Amino acid sequence: IVSSKRPDTLHACFMVCLKSDLYQPKYANIPMTYSVTPCQRQHAFVDGYGVGTVFTATNALGVKEAVKVVEVVPLTRIVCEVDKARMTYNTRQLPNGDCEIHYIMDGPNLGSFQPHLKLQLNTMKAFIEANVAAICKDAPPLEKSAGGNIEANTVNSVPVTVDEVCDWVAAQGVDPGPFREASIDQKLLLQMDHEMLEELGCSSKIKRTKLLNAITDLGGGSSSKDDFVEVPQHAQAQQAQQTLFQLSQTQVTVQEVRRSNRYHY
Description:
Blueprint: E1 2-3, H1 9-18, H2 20-27, E2 35-37, E3 44-46, E4 49-50, E5 54-58, E6 64-73, E7 77-82, E8 85-93, E9 99-106, H3 114-138, H4 162-171, H5 177-181, H6 186-189, H7 194-199, H8 205-218, H9 232-264
Antiparallel strand pairs: 1-9, 2-5, 3-4, 5-6, 6-7, 7-8, 8-9
Helix pairs in contact: 1-3, 3-9
């Protein structure tokens, strides 16, 4: 697919492919609710997303699946594996400024996925084009290094593990002990408010305000649900997917009836 040219479209395309838990439900024909196991900090491209990140969910068939990121080339390539399947996203900026996403899914018995993937890629394209600004607000574009390479954002990345959160809190001049006792990780840190900080022993309103401001800066101004535009292609694709599913179920039923009739004769 090719997304029309706009500033930072390449970055937005790459983030949508990388952050499956945030964006897949916004464009997918069959939305998945993923839980995320962040990668180790040294492997993170941005905020716990990188080689080693695992997305876990229950698919439409009721089977639990874990999608693991096994390769990340900044703004160029993402490879994920799930069971016996391998999914590859290649992104590149075209000479005219457009962004191309090339998606490959390898594995056994994937022929039936072709109509599903065609619908999903069309919706993905529409979602990205309508939401470049919101995606970049959630994960700001990274600067190139002096050598022209895209660097992983580790300078101001959100601490992921409890230990990293405690180190960061201590650097802000706040006692990390209560944070460690409460097992505050990245997800909880970004949900902090005055009441939660007070429960963690931060009695000074001024200190709480400073820490909350630092958390806001650390999160890069995360986008809210209202920042994203729901594209009409999403609902259309979901309806079409449901029709495809019903058709396949009908075909299975017909085959079973025919098989049963053969045995009766």
